[in-house]
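Holo prediction — (R)-mevalonate.
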Amino acid sequence: MAYPISGFSKLTKAEKIAWLGDTYLKNSPSSVHTLQNYWHPDSELQNLHDEFTENTLSNFYLPFGIAPNFLINGRNLAIPMAVEESSVIAASGKAAKFWNTRGGFKATVLGTQKSGHVHFNYSGDPKKLLLFFEEIKPKLLASVSEIVRNMEERGGGVLSIELKDKTDLLANYYQLACSFETKDAMGANFINTCLEQFGATLEKEAQQFDLFSETEKQLHVIMSILSNYVPECRVRAEVSCPVEDLGNKQEGNGKIFAEKFMQGIRIAEVEPSRAVTHNKGIMNGIDAVVLATGNDFRAVEAGIHAYAAKDGSYTSLTHAEIKNGIFHYWIEIPIALGTIGGLTSLHPLAQVALEILQKPSAKELMEIAAVAGLAQNFAAIRSLVTTGIQKGHMKMHLMNILNQQQTTSSEKALIIEHFQTNPITHSAVIEVLQKIRNVE
Ligand code: MEV
């Protein structure tokens, strides 16, 4: 076989799988069968999935579940979540129920602006560049008039274009820093199309600007791309209740629990190693909603973690305080989501997720995602500072272990019964299973 392989993407799916079987799966013929086993029997639906990306061979399922009892801004919602990790949905449901009887979650969108840049090189007089920019600004906007028409009809569009001198960071480096409103669309394609057009107009106009010398006319665009850092597209979610209302069976005394809880948050505020895990738990909730609704979780992850490090040290995304006997607990995150366009409109399950959420606007979905993150963090810290997480986690994980061991339903029932009162570890489960099988 000669590498690199040419024309692979032009092969049919069957040919690609045959190639894979011959090249990498010779010792594992069942893998080929598994790939085929995961095809959807409805060929139309399978074709739809095949076309989401390239060189598709099969589907990779994730569980799609819901966490009910979320009271958000006075509305009861069940939040759809796509996530493989055991305990995440259970934890969400528990936190939702806890806060449902304590006033629920309040969420507020603090801004919806997104941004992007034309990164370009210019070696010349900065004052002339500024004059040039002021002169061509209307032309830049005019050059995207067709692209923005639909978006403007929906109330969005280009909000601003600024020239930024970044030569203190990198020689000859300037930007057109642009901001956008994309309403219910995530807007990545819209923003990138506008930016590429701005870049082309910028270069073309530079060639014709009389004040520029021949060298200055060689202004050239390096790249035009949106930023996934969206601090102006931000949402806050919060809960609050009298400290004594925090107490119940698991927490014990409300005041003691609140103090321990806040200490748990403070550790994540000051200690980056803990903050990473703390925020990972928050992302368990956020990513699951982002995925279920067909949004781009990589963009969301990158933007949120950058925000967590915005002051120079990576820190907690959630915060808590007690004021006048009231426990306040909140999260603030930047997050760009869409409820129209892209996979949100194409993936049938993303459509179902949006239906479950009562067809939210992008702003409402931002609120829901922030609430899912806060709820997840609440559940994690609550467990960590009381029982520890392993108790609940292993209970959920028990099913995974049983499935790995291909237990029958009667074996499952016996083992679940046994571990109601015994600590769950992998080796303990295997031991009990072996005992049952030896008796049988
Ligand atoms: C596990 O997926 C998430 C936690 O580790 C989060 C945390 O420690 O806060 C439980």
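READOUT: Residues 85, 277-278, 280-281, 284, 380, 384, 389 surround (R)-mevalonate (CB under 6 Å).
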